[in-house]
Amino acid sequence: MRANLFGVGIDALGMEETVAHVAGLVGSNRPAWVMTLNPEYLYQCRFDPRLLDLARRADLVTADGEGIVWACRVAGCPVPERVTGIDLMLKLLEKASSAGWSVYFFGAAPGVAAAAAEKARQEYPGLKIAGSRHGYFQEHEESRIAREIKETAPDLLFVALGAPKQEMWIDEYLGEIDAGVAIGVGGSFDVLAGKVARAPHWIRRLRLEWLTRLLRQPSRWRRQMVLPLFVWAVIKEYKLGKK
Ligand code: UDP
């Protein structure tokens, strides 16, 4: 089942079901794309048809954050829980190590993708690392990077370039890479590599992780200014009878 917010379909799957669905995509032998949709991205979709189009073409869209889970509830199409990029990546690494899938880490600052891959190798014994590469490159290097990734034939390709850059990159090059499942995971390599700490569990349980991120990384303030606008847009669209 799919929820629908502002014309974007969101798969109404919990974490375990999402992992099972990704397993199906890995087994399908055609390239597939999983998007972890956050409120900032969805809000921008209302003004940028390119972003809307990208979100509509992903094979699987997860509710990345409490804002999306809340909005789905308000819109009368609830999803079971949030499935964030970092949580999904960790679950998929676990699954990859037991299922024998190979994994490529593409993105983040020089050294961070390699450190994340090394951390994953330690945490998930037997995990096959197809490769890693940082996410700072010139436009003319993009095709070469895609070719290098293709040569390693990863089952899972984590792309951590931030949104919407990672979505645009996946859209452009997934066909060329021609295998595996690509997933945009934002700042997740920084967390896995230990460069950025996640909020403690009790704060996550209170659903306030977004607030800690905001306090720890004040540069996010500008970005998160859209959150109240997102809340208002959802209320206007789905509560005040405009739709
Ligand atoms: N990044 C990158 N290449 C770029 C711009 C950003 O690899 O050209 C990386 C950056 O180093 C960081 C991630 O993309 O690791 C973006 O993290 P952020 O927390 O902003 O992502 P979000 O999940 O919030 O979109």
Tell me what the structure shows.
Helix 8 links the parallel strand 7 and strand 8. The mean pLDDT is 94. The chain is built from 13 helices and eight strands. It is globular. The protein has a six-stranded parallel sheet with strand order 4-3-8-7-5-6, with helices on both faces. A two-stranded antiparallel ribbon has the order 1-2. It starts with a strand and ends with a helix. With 243 residues, the protein is of the alpha/beta class. The site of uridine-5'-diphosphate has 15 residues, from helix 9.
Cofactors, ions and other ligands in the entry: uridine-5'-diphosphate
- End-to-end distance: 20 Å
Question: What is the multimeric organization of the chains shown?
Answer: single chain
Order of SSEs: EEHEHHEHHEHEHEHEHHHHH
Topology, number of strands: 8
Shape assignment:
globular
Low-confidence stretches: none
- Percent of sequence in beta strands: 15-25%
Give the helix/strand layout:
Layout: E1 2-5, E2 8-11, H1 15-27, E3 32-37, H2 39-45, H3 49-57, E4 60-63, H4 66-74, H5 85-99, E5 102-107, H6 112-123, E6 128-133, H7 142-152, E7 156-160, H8 165-177, E8 181-184, H9 188-192, H10 201-205, H11 209-216, H12 220-224, H13 226-239
Parallel strand pairs: 3-4, 3-8, 5-6, 5-7, 7-8
Antiparallel strand pairs: 1-2
Helix pairs in contact: 1-5, 2-3, 2-13, 7-8
The structure holds uridine-5'-diphosphate (UDP).
